[in-house]
């Protein structure tokens, strides 16, 4: 059997990550996204933990899912409580999910020191809870918490816990590396030994504290595990859970397993970015498979080679996971980088042009520009060079004033004077800082002529001092990331004056937006 | 032999990462930091690639390193070129490093399609280069590029490449997973087979495209590899190189190997953060071992359990890698750091004072302050708290104007009004940017009262956006480094307004200078 079942716990264990908090609407939207991706199970929350999760289980029933089954998560019944009266178990049933996942302890010292019950009572708590939920028609998975640590200390008891769960009817026994500190060789050895003894479906749930969660998951699959638990982007408490964005492509593209439905794999990058956006987290650009730099090439030699043979520096085709290749421009790269970038303008045969643009990029880079993270500015540069560019507005001037009196808050005002089609427009705006005020004033002046600028917003702003040893007279590079309904783009500005550097990046950003729009109109 | 040699390539392969660009000063400072950490080899750069690396190799000779050896990196000689005349090999010798690392091809199709030379000529290029560098007294490592991909396609040739390198005198044969796409089971199997045939020292250099770089490195060590290459924080092209911040603690704490010198492991977190700061990258909070959330506990149950038994949700003691536990609900982070810093005031016994200062620091850190790299500001904070502080001047107000007309240079003016001993002083100054103008105006106003300020200058200025997703309304943290004839000190300011943030850091810097002087006078 080469089918692996994907159990996503982004909404439950993932939401334990620092700074992560999903609203009810977020959780429902993510559920649809995960279903579209094609995961088999979606662990939606912990019904007893908070009212938000309770509402989630109510509302999720009205979503039309294509494939995924929703799971509710909770603990075994409490010690010395009748199962029908256990609050947690009641809440799990009220969630009315087809699947219930129960966590129980499998490390003897945890049972004694944290739960403070006897080893036998713990076994009863597990078997009671599973049998009861099975009798209510649920598919039941059993998460054996701290399984690997427990097995290392008392393998007999850890095994007994699994046997008890299996005997009570659990549909899968999930081995958890709760501390996330196990090594792949240990995981392989222990799962191999368990596989001999437990005939039912085995699952794996590992954390990434040793930076080995993906490897540990794959090692367990090699030993016969068929249910894989993890989260999108590996979000979760401490160092996070195993990252499904890495596990799934490894399983499918490298190990020949089947998971997700048709075409699901190609949606992986999109789903990854969606989760970052919804969780309001910065995406990790060098994230394997789905990161924006995952297929980015910088060294000139590499780029030369990749044009000859794509397999040279790419372990998989980027499009197989819905990602794309990116050629970076930097001082380390020779002309081949720029060549690749300019390809879309069909100008690479023009040797004089190529020489000119190369020289200009190098000059600008010497001044402190950096185009690898500011492709929109690079495109504007090329367009200006080849005449495929029109000015949308002329700057007549700007003025920014920051004023502070004693210990009061500073007051910041910007005025901008621009000319569009020979009509002069003067605008003024306050802001929380000089760049913010300038940005507001500039938009205010231009929106009258270009109403679509309302759709655009600045989402990221970076300042870097280029030659820091010059103190406050140092040059700064400003990089701005902008976004509208369809696109994200980056622009750059450099100056000894942080306001001027920001201004250049702001202007590029607006011009790029207007240019793209104009092109769409022309095509239509 | 349980000693593993750590070969750091942060400065070379790491700098290929998207958005990473180290200045010469950065590279030298990082070299000292890595040496202090205790790595065995520091690959400093690619002498032929650019003038910055050339200068690095000149200047690095004057650094006093405790332990690390510097390595220069380059390719084998070109085809059909006499070794003495090969530009790259000449550049490598001119770098005058004790170690030279040579990269050569070991994948037959790459030799044919990218290098476009015969398989035999490639072997000669490798042996010539190694033998020649050995004859010049260098320690020589051979990086077998694409080794694992090559071995899978043509194991006979890949092996021959290693044998040739060994026969020519290479001190280590480094197996590279250049595409970063191999699986741990493949790595283990291939390294195991190679170990049988190659008796010399083996090294490993892997990339993280499959999210398996750490696991792949550990798998190769299990098979006898003794030199491990990687970068701090795993920075590097695409998905980065293997992360030494994860590899080293796994090797030492879990697998019982020796690496780094005494106490090196405890510096790991500090070095990780230093590299992020220098590269101006946002740190990855959930990074294993060294991330700020790596030992952060959120769930109430977890915190309860961790108080009963620290091993419950921690795979290693956080302090073993210089990190610390963080309880997210009660926000107790940083207390040990603060304790250490307050010690010199002999006040750690004063519980109320410690509680107050802890609270204030935590509040400021929540606002975006960071005192780790701004100890002078921290000292001022403590002095204000305990009354060992006097005001040297009062700010009545400042105003900064930046004005730009069409395409002219911007004009920047600052006026500052201060009061010293009830005498009001108003001054104005121009500058290359708003902070520079403000700095000049403030000094001008104060030098009349405090002539020693003439000896002081600002040597470094850093701006960092703290919450980048807020665009231009984001908060910024400014860190200023100042210097006089005897000392160097750092101060910090935070605000949504970059001018105000800079102002706070400037004022702290001047006050700190005056305070130190006053103390010297008092002592005399």
Automatic annotation (TrEMBL), chains A, B:
Reactions this protein catalyses: pyruvate + acetyl-CoA + H2O = (3R)-citramalate + CoA + H(+)
The protein's Enzyme Commission number: 2.3.3.21
Any single biological process term in GO: L-leucine biosynthetic process
UniProt-listed InterPro entries: 2-isopropylmalate_synth_dimer (IPR013709), AIPM/Hcit_synth_CS (IPR002034), Aldolase_TIM (IPR013785), Citramal_synthase (IPR005675), LeuA/HCS_post-cat (IPR054691), LeuA_allosteric_dom_sf (IPR036230), PYR_CT (IPR000891)
Ranges of residues in domain Pyruvate carboxyltransferase: 4-269
Pfam families noted in UniProt: HCS_D2, HMGL-like, LeuA_dimer
Keywords attached to this entry: Amino-acid biosynthesis, Branched-chain amino acid biosynthesis, Isoleucine biosynthesis, Transferase
GO molecular function per UniProt: (R)-citramalate synthase activity; 2-isopropylmalate synthase activity
Broad enzyme group: transferase
Pathway(s) the chain acts in: Amino-acid biosynthesis; L-isoleucine biosynthesis; 2-oxobutanoate from pyruvate: step 1/3
Family classification: Belongs to the alpha-IPM synthase/homocitrate synthase family.
Record-given protein name: Citramalate synthase
């Amino acid at each position: 059997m080469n089918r692996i079942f994907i159990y996503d716990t982004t909404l439950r264990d993932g939401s334990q990550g620092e700074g992560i908090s999903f609203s009810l609407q977020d959780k429902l939207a993510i559920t649809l996204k995960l279903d579209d991706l094609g995961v088999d199970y979606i662990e939606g929350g912990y019904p007893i933990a908070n009212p938000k999760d309770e509402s989630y289980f109510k509302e999720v029933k009205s979503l039309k899912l294509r494939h995924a089954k929703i799971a509710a998560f909770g603990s075994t019944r409490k010690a010395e409580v009748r199962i029908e009266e256990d609050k947690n178990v009641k809440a799990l049933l009220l969630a009315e999910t087809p699947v219930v996942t129960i966590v129980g302890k499998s490390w003897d010292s945890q049972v004694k020191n944290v739960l403070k019950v006897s080893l036998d009572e713990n076994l009863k708590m597990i078997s009671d809870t599973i049998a009861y939920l099975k009798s209510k028609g649920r598919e039941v998975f059993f998460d054996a918490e701290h399984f690997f640590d427990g097995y290392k200390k008392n393998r007999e008891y850890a095994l007994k816990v699994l046997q008890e769960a299996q005997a009570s009817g659990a549909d899968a026994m999930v081995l958890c590396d709760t501390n996330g500190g196990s090594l792949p060789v240990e995981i392989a050895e222990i799962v191999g030994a368990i596989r001999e003894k437990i005939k039912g479906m085995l699952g794996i749930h590992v954390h990434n504290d040793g930076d080995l969660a993906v490897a540990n998951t794959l090692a367990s699959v090699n030993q016969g595990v068929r249910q894989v638990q993890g989260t999108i982007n590996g979000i979760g408490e401490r160092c996070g859970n195993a990252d499904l964005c890495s596990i799934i492509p490894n399983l499918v593209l490298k190990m020949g397993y089947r998971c997700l439905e048709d075409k699901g794999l190609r949606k992986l990058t999109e789903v990854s970015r969606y989760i970052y956006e919804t969780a309001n987290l910065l995406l990790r650009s060098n994230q394997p498979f789905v990161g924006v730099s995952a297929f980015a090439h910088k060294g000139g030699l590499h780029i030369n080679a990749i044009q000859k043979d794509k397999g040279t520096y790419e372990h998989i085709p980027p499009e197989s996971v819905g990602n794309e290749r990116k050629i970076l421009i930097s001082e380390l790269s020779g002309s081949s980088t720029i060549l690749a970038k300019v390809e879309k303008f069909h100008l690479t045969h023009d040797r004089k042009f190529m020489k000119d643009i190369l020289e200009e990029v190098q000059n600008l880079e010497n001044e402190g520009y950096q185009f690898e993270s500011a492709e929109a500015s690079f495109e504007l540069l090329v367009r200006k060079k080849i005449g495929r560019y029109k000015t949308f507005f002329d700057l007549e001037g700007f003025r920014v004033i920051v004023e502070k009196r004693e210990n009061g808050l500073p007051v910041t005002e910007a005025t901008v004077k621009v000319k569009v089609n020979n009509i002069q427009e003067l605008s003024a705006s306050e802001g929380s800082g000089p760049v913010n005020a300038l940005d507001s004033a500039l938009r205010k002046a231009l929106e009258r002529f270009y109403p679509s600028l309302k759709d655009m917003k600045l989402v990221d702003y970076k300042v870097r001092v280029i030659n820091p040893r010059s103190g406050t007279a140092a040059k700064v590079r400003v990089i701005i990331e902008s976004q509208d309904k369809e696109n994200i783009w980056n622009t750059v500005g450099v100056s000894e004056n942080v306001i001027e550097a920001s201004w250049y990046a702001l202007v590029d950003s607006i011009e790029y937006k207007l240019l793209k729009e104009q092109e769409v109109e022309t095509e239509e």
